[in-house]
Amino acid sequence: MLILAKVVTVLVASMHCYFLWLEMFAWTSKAKKVFRNFPDELFEPTKSMAANQGLYNGFLAAGLFWSLIISSNEWSINVALFFLACVLVAGIYGAVSVSKKIFYVQGLPAILGIILWSAVKFGL
């Protein structure tokens, strides 16, 4: 269970690294292909806003990766649960405010990670 929890955590962290890159460095190029419903003429004016969002995604990724290198098992689990909960909240908010797809991309993997880490924590 521990290995699966770590694999899911790496997957979620890696996705947020991709979001960081997309929003901070590829907003006016690759992001146009990813966010097809976003009006083309708004990419350039929203470039700094997207970069700010990307930075926050980077913080989520950093916290998740950090949880994997903490030597204390109890702290490692708690940090992973905290950052996965943050991702879940972001996924729920994105689903409500922007698109339900955000919940499936961010929220569901976070829920899976929370379930797995909780099983590790409680010895299930």
In DSSP terms (H or I, runs of 4 or more residues), the helix count works out at 5
- State which percent range the strand residues make up: under 5%
SSE arrangement, N to C:
HHHHH
Distance between the termini: 9 Å
Structural class: mainly alpha
Question: Can you put this structure into words, describing what you see?
Answer:
It is a single chain. By secondary structure, this protein is mostly helical. It has one domain. The chain contains 5 helices and no strands. It has helices spanning 2-25, 30-34, 47-69, 73-97, 100-121. Helix 1 (2-25) packs antiparallel against helix 5 (100-121). The longest helix is centred in the C-terminal third of the chain and has 25 residues, at 73-97. The model has no long low-confidence stretch (mean pLDDT 96).
Summarize the structure.
The protein is an all-alpha fold.
Tags for this model:
single chain, about 120 residues, mainly alpha, about 0% strand, elongated, DUF1304
What's the structural blueprint in terms of helices and strands?
Elements: H1 2-25, H2 30-34, H3 47-69, H4 73-97, H5 100-121
Helix pairs in contact: 1-3, 1-5, 3-4, 4-5
